[in-house]
Fold:
Amino acid sequence: MALSLGAIVDALGGELHGDRAVSIERLAPLKSAQADALTFLSSSKFNDDLVVSKAACVIVAPAMREIAAARGAFIVATDPQYYFALLTQLWKAHLARPGTPRIHPSAIIDPGADIDSTARIGALCVIERGVRIGADTVLKSNVTVSEDCIIGARCNLYPGVVIGADGFGNALHEGKWVKIEQLGAVRIGDDVDIGANTCIDRGALDDTVIEDGVKLDNLIQIGHNVRIGKHTAMAGCTGVAGSTSIGAHCTIGGQGIIIGHVTIADGVHISAGTTVMGSILKPGHYTGVFPIDDNASWQKNAATVRQLHTLRDRLRALEKAATQDNKAP
Amino acid sequence: MALSLGAIVDALGGELHGDRAVSIERLAPLKSAQADALTFLSSSKFNDDLVVSKAACVIVAPAMREIAAARGAFIVATDPQYYFALLTQLWKAHLARPGTPRIHPSAIIDPGADIDSTARIGALCVIERGVRIGADTVLKSNVTVSEDCIIGARCNLYPGVVIGADGFGNALHEGKWVKIEQLGAVRIGDDVDIGANTCIDRGALDDTVIEDGVKLDNLIQIGHNVRIGKHTAMAGCTGVAGSTSIGAHCTIGGQGIIIGHVTIADGVHISAGTTVMGSILKPGHYTGVFPIDDNASWQKNAATVRQLHTLRDRLRALEKAATQDNKAP
Amino acid sequence: MALSLGAIVDALGGELHGDRAVSIERLAPLKSAQADALTFLSSSKFNDDLVVSKAACVIVAPAMREIAAARGAFIVATDPQYYFALLTQLWKAHLARPGTPRIHPSAIIDPGADIDSTARIGALCVIERGVRIGADTVLKSNVTVSEDCIIGARCNLYPGVVIGADGFGNALHEGKWVKIEQLGAVRIGDDVDIGANTCIDRGALDDTVIEDGVKLDNLIQIGHNVRIGKHTAMAGCTGVAGSTSIGAHCTIGGQGIIIGHVTIADGVHISAGTTVMGSILKPGHYTGVFPIDDNASWQKNAATVRQLHTLRDRLRALEKAATQDNKAP
Structure:
């Protein structure tokens, strides 16, 4: 497929400097873009790549106008990454091939489920009774949505997603675990994306809640009664334990784990690989990762970590002795 | 739906102080329970919430009798959380709606599988030949049980569970991995729960074994030839590498990883986010997590971790010098 | 089933010392092997087990010839573990029961997919249009391969695998995430194994690439535009974030996480539980794990970790003071 530069700016806006008739055959990263490709500059740290790029055209921020002009055709956009995101959507819409049914005949849908007439349900999905699915929401193949769970509009659920399995609730009684039936459900807002094989458990008594605009990557576990605030994004392999509340506009790096029953404020950013062991009430960037090292160095330093408390006491003793020496006549 | 307080204590026992005729419309957490709800007090640290609770009735331990009486109706139970667990089961049984077939017609079941006549198999499950499934066990949708694996009675397997995929066995030969076929199977005891998208691999030669009463949360990986002892519980995103043996009555926090070929004793409790790098032969509570901090502080401290061994040596040198000073005439 | 020792060495080579007619009923680990079993010695550290083994026959390296001869029948092989791997394959081939169709009738396969006539597609797989699957590749049940993804020859994809879900690409615009459509695909080489419920995302513009001979365990997340080099193996629960390039012949332990946009050289080995926060350009063995300890000790040491930078400064101050003391007249 192809789109002309003219057709692109007609659809998306932006200030084109170059020939409207040039045909764009593909979208490509700045470094590998060839003469048939449109690309974009995400950050000024890639300026050197811009200068030598062979791309047919580059989307740049207003501040890059001069450097871009020296190279060739360009489109000026206030936010080039956002412009590029819209461009991928335009491209995808043009790519769309006909033929997939709105509700795949292999999907198992309870007659008591309420699915918006514009939603799409992929092959081998299982939709149980009482489920509600909003307008323009897309379930790819093999998605399970259990009883009474609610999914908003314009959501994307990728293959293998499980919504509304029982939360992990058990009471310990005489050394054995007794199941606490999970009587809540899951409520998911609008514009939520849920990655492949991610699981969101139903609540114990109240519901588990995912607010509007949340983006979850693959293989994430969301425990029962968790609440995730608007426009928070979470990278793959992350786990959030039960009854934890995460604010809006947070980002959680890959393979984070947030323990249960804590509160994370709005605007908190957690680095990949970090274990969150308590509430975080101030916005900011937080990290807790043992620094990687060659194994031999790690072994020596890790052994010392186990003596840290003792080392601190020894340091204190030296300081005390030094102070007394100085005081001595 | 609704149940009267009288019907509840008739079914579950407990000492009711209040009107048997009061109708309970829902079960609710202590804090949000309204006048139509039954709730429970899990710990004396929530006493303040009890005093102001609007709940129709509260389940309390014998020691809370007086405080509860000052508020309104209550049920005395020796172990309120256990009583509440049984209550959720009673509630769920009353909620049960008719209509789902015992074996969903979309399930793919090998004629050579032996499924107890009381077991329930959900939509789109795949049950291969030689599989045995015990009484009253429930497989939700999309569960795979591979050849020759055995599942006991009263188990719950949630959507996306994979039992008996090949263990990760490869021999390195001239720089390439050669597959070691996995000739064992998986044996799962009675009363085992397995969370959504959790995987339990078949053994290489012997079987992988999950003993009675084990509870596994979602997205857990159990490697080949692992053995998990009775009534051990494991939170989401945890991995157990091959040939490791975990004792009975253990708890493993979320996103733990236990390396292969080690032994964990009975009664070991591992905190969330901890990597277990060797055997643990004494019961107790173990942790290994880099403490989370604001990113700037973490950067400084993490940099110092990489010099820890050197710092220890420098501390020693100072101590030695101080000792010699004191010895000097 | 059974195979005679003679049949085994006729098929696999190796130097048999013992009766060709002896019937092997099972393959077993060295420790538990009984008189009907063939086993192997993987390392000289198990010599004591060899001496007392009741196995019908033991596969050993040339250096073990004498010790093995003192015990009973044995097969000498240059690389006993490799020999044993081939033996499991021979055994599995003899075990194979007839009856499963090459393409299970419940699989949902787009007519535009190109599946080699020798490939096997299990129950309830979903194969979208434009997909290519090579010779002798096996997809177990419930595997999803999305549009335009390519899988080579002799691969094994286990239940629940998701190939080609959208990468996690979003542009932040006025506090909301805007989807970047993922226009690339996934290209998987020959002889690649992909464990249960593992996900490999499609690329944003270019493809995500898994080279020949890569072995991925269960529940692994591979982000968009990742490249994994030949014969690299990765244990369960690991995550690789987008645009990272991993070399050939690497091993990544369980529940590792490698952040995005970094480069890992050939021959890098990462310990289980390690977070890789930057590029690693030299082969070697790397670790970054907080050492596990009893919880009380951990608490004290972890508290001190948060003061490490300060401790270092205090140590420096003491060193400076000591130096000045020595310089003093």
